[in-house]
């Protein structure tokens, strides 16, 4: 088991949680990262993060003559995470936001899941991390019909989500061990890519029918946050209306998928884990789920990108950052090939390169275990750290076309450059 899986259970974060008022000041913190396409995708990513730092026009002017009187948390009297969860109704749907790269945020999610499951075992987990078309592959893994590597490969985790799997693995392992359903909430990237390029109108009738029919529009504060982010990172040819429809698609799809699961499973409660930008101020997923179910949900955010301001969430967890142990890395871009894993570009200090493995070589096995795809490589390296040594069997084709298989020892490197998959 990965260090993070053990740490997520044994080393729980020191947290306290304080309820916040429901008045909305129109601020929003970061939106999700996702993959749409080179071009429109980077703009969405940059603009999404920009949502974390602005105030809707008019708010500052309206408050200019008012006393500066922000809320104060009494840390000596603040409730703990478990005390707060214990006070929630047993049938409440609970949202817990995350900054995708923050380990302590995922520890808060895990602790919330453990506590709620102990109280109400009939619970499901809705997650942004997987996209709706791949639900059956997630179900197969949770039921023990496939391996973890097969699940990750078939759901496209490393292509569609990409964040360090060690952050998410403890929740998935807990769900599997306790037979808790995980519901893939997110819209498929193939559709959000097309919407980013041409709006909902660019979809075929069949594709449009796979998304929610009813998009709640006309929320001026929501639209203003999205427009502000869009304006901060202009891109030639991009249209705000398309950008807004991508954001709406994410939020409406996740809300509709969660609502459908709850409707199909009467009496079941749900805990939903998604990027904090989808949860802050309630007008992303939470309000859209409430619209469909007619029942109010509870929202939880964790300190980090956000400040504890009125209206941002029902509860705000004060958690200190924690770091995962450094991962052992090969130092190369990898891609699936017909009979193994192809080596792409190598980093300057790549362990593969130092061992004599070159671009376009095919990795066949690690420590004697075959690697049929990229996910299998990631699983073999999951518990490794920088400096660890592994045996890699690979195939090299020379310029004459002849092939040769060899096994070499590779020393793993440290943290990778941004956006390197390995």
UniProtKB/TrEMBL annotation:
Listed Pfam families: Cofac_haem_bdg (PF04187), PDZ_2 (PF13180)
Domain PDZ: 328-398
Domain of life assignment: Bacteria
Segments crossing the lipid bilayer: none
Entries under InterPro entries matching the protein: Cofac_haem-bd_dom, PDZ, PDZ_sf
Coiled coil regions, renumbered to chain: none
Name of the protein in question: PDZ domain-containing protein
Organism: Denitromonas ohlonensis
């Amino acid at each position: 088991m990965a260090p993070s899986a053990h740490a997520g259970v044994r080393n729980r974060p020191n947290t306290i949680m304080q309820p916040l008022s429901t008045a909305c000041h129109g601020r929003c913190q970061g939106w999700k990262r996702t993959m749409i396409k080179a071009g429109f995708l980077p703009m969405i990513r940059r603009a999404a993060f920009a949502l974390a730092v602005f105030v809707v026009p008019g708010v500052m002017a309206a408050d200019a003559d008012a006393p500066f009187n922000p809320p104060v948390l009494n840390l000596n009297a603040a409730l703990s995470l478990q005390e707060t969860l214990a006070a929630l109704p047993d049938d409440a749907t609970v949202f817990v936001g995350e900054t995708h790269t923050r380990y302590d945020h995922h520890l808060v999610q895990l602790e919330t899941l453990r506590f709620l499951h102990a109280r109400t075992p009939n619970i499901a987990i809705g997650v942004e991390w997987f996209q709706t078309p791949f639900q059956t592959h997630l179900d197969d893994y949770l039921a023990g019909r496939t391996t973890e590597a097969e699940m990750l490969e078939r759901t496209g985790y490393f292509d569609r989500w990409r964040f360090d799997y060690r952050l998410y693995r403890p929740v998935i392992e807990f769900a599997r061990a306790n037979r808790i359903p995980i519901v893939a909430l997110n819209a498929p990237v193939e559709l959000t890519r097309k919407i980013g390029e041409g709006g909902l109108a660019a979809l075929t009738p069949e594709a449009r029918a796979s998304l929610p029919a009813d998009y709640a529009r006309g929320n001026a504060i929501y639209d203003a946050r999205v427009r502000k982010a869009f304006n901060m990172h202009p891109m030639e040819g991009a249209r705000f209306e398309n950008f807004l429809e991508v954001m709406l698609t994410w939020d409406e799809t996740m809300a509709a998928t969660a609502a459908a699961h709850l409707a199909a499973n009467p009496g079941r409660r749900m805990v939903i884990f998604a990027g904090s930008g989808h949860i802050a101020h309630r007008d992303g997923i939470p309000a859209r789920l409430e619209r469909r179910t007619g029942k109010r949900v509870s929202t939880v955010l964790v300190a980090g990108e956000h400040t504890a301001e009125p209206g941002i969430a029902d509860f705000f967890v004060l958690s200190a950052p924690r770091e995962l142990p450094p991962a052992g890395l090969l130092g190369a871009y990898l891609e699936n090939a017909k009979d193994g894993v192809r080596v792409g570009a190598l980093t300057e200090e790549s362990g593969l390169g130092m061992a004599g493995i070159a671009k376009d070589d095919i990795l066949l096995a690690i420590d004697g275990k075959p690697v049929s795809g990229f996910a299998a490589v990631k699983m073999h390296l999951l518990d490794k750290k920088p400096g660890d040594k592994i045996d890699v069997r690979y195939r090299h084709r020379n310029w004459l076309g002849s092939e040769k298989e060899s096994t070499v020892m590779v020393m793993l490197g440290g943290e990778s450059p941004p956006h390197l998959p390995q």
